[in-house]
Design a protein that fits this description.
- The chain is an alpha/beta fold.
- The chain folds into 3 domains: 79 residues, Arc Repressor Mutant, subunit A (Orthogonal Bundle); 88 residues, D-Maltodextrin-Binding Protein, domain 2 (3-Layer(aba) Sandwich), CATH 3.40.190.10; 91 residues, Periplasmic binding protein-like II (D-Maltodextrin-Binding Protein, domain 2), CATH 3.40.190.10.
- It contains 9 helices and 12 strands.
- The chain is elongated, with a radius of gyration of 32 Å.
- InterPro entries: LTTR, LysR_HTH_N, LysR_subst-bd, WH-like_DNA-bd_sf, WH_DNA-bd_sf.
- Belongs to the LysR transcriptional regulatory family.
- Keywords: DNA-binding, Transcription, Transcription regulation.
Length: 292
């Protein structure tokens, strides 16, 4: 027996079987009760069987209805899968945002969450890198917007925020003795913090040697925690497990850094101001009252 089953009628049949009510099935499918009844009648006529036993306050599947029930679900699922293969996906606008690794743990998750809430039609792609590499990417048009850090005195724009940069060592590290070369754990070049650390020590006539180089913040922190050497980090970085060496006379005082946004030339979508304000407000809410 070959039959051509109507998918909508099968959906109605399944819903009546689940709810045991024509009325509740109609409400669930946003149809009228007569429409549901008509679709069930069409199925029964096509198959030549009764699918439901009608009682006073509910309808129950007959034996023939039970035979159809599981197969009907499979048919509807298969139908919907085929439909998805050819469904036109609405293209979402994409914004590529760059962020220094130092901000990833604390502020980046909140920026991503706020963007998803306030701009659901925009897909945000995040690129994590050092400030110098992010600036290069903006100049080359590879990212739309980024936050970067640099020495405050080098900045021409008004910064979103300023922060201190400090020397850090492991919790159990000995106090630095000026009579010995300072052991440094540094990011691999190019890196502004690496350059600042070396320049600051040399300007004070302090000898140093690099004992550890890292590509990322996590491994750099691990090395410093283990007592391999000292490092230089912005105070907003993930510094748990490290101790600040601020105030130790043998180490030079470091300049303050600024955080500023940089935008790709020609990047001017209609939502530009709103996105910038959202990122700035998240940043300020996290760091404005912190001791930076």
């Amino acid at each position: 027996m070959r039959v051509n089953l109507d998918i909508q009628s099968l959906r109605s049949f399944i819903k009546v079987g689940e709810t045991k009510s024509f009325t509740r099935a109609a409400e669930a499918l946003s149809l009228t009760q007569p429409a549901i009844s008509q679709q069930i009648k069409r199925l029964e006529d096509l198959l030549g069987v009764e699918l439901f036993a009608r009682e006073k306050r509910k309808v129950l599947l007959t034996l023939e209805g039970e035979k159809l029930f599981s197969h009907a679900k499979d048919i509807v699922v298969c139908n919907d899968k085929v439909g998805c293969l050819f469904e036109k996906v609405e293209k979402r606008e994409t914004i590529i945002v760059g962020m220094p690794e130092h901000f990833c743990e604390r502020v980046l998750p909140k920026i991503i969450s706020s963007m998803a809430t306030h701009f659901p039609a925009i897909q945000m792609v995040v690129k994590v890198a050092r400030s110098g590499l992010l600036l290069d990417a903006v100049s080359e048009g590879k990212i739309d917007l980024c936050l970067v850090m640099d020495e405050l005195k080098k900045m021409h724009e008004r910064p979103w925020h300023t922060l201190s940069v400090r020397w850090f060592a492991g919790d159990r590290a000995d106090v630095i003795d000026k009579s010995y070369d300072v052991p440094l754990a540094l990011f691999k070049p190019p890196c502004g913090f690496r350059s600042l650390a070396i320049r600051s020590l040399e300007e004070c006539g302090i000898k140093w040697h690099c004992v550890y180089e890292s590509e990322d913040l996590m491994s750099l922190r691990s090395a410093v925690q283990a007592g391999v050497g000292i490092t230089l980090l912005p105070f907003v970085a993930q510094v748990s497990g490290l101790k600040s060496l601020e105030g130790i006379s043998s180490l030079p005082v470091l300049p303050r850094f600024a955080v500023v946004p940089k935008e790709r030339a020609g990047w001017n979508p209609v939502y530009r101001r709103e996105v910038l304000e959202l990122i700035r407000s998240v940043w300020i809410s996290e760091y404005a009252n912190a001791s930076l």
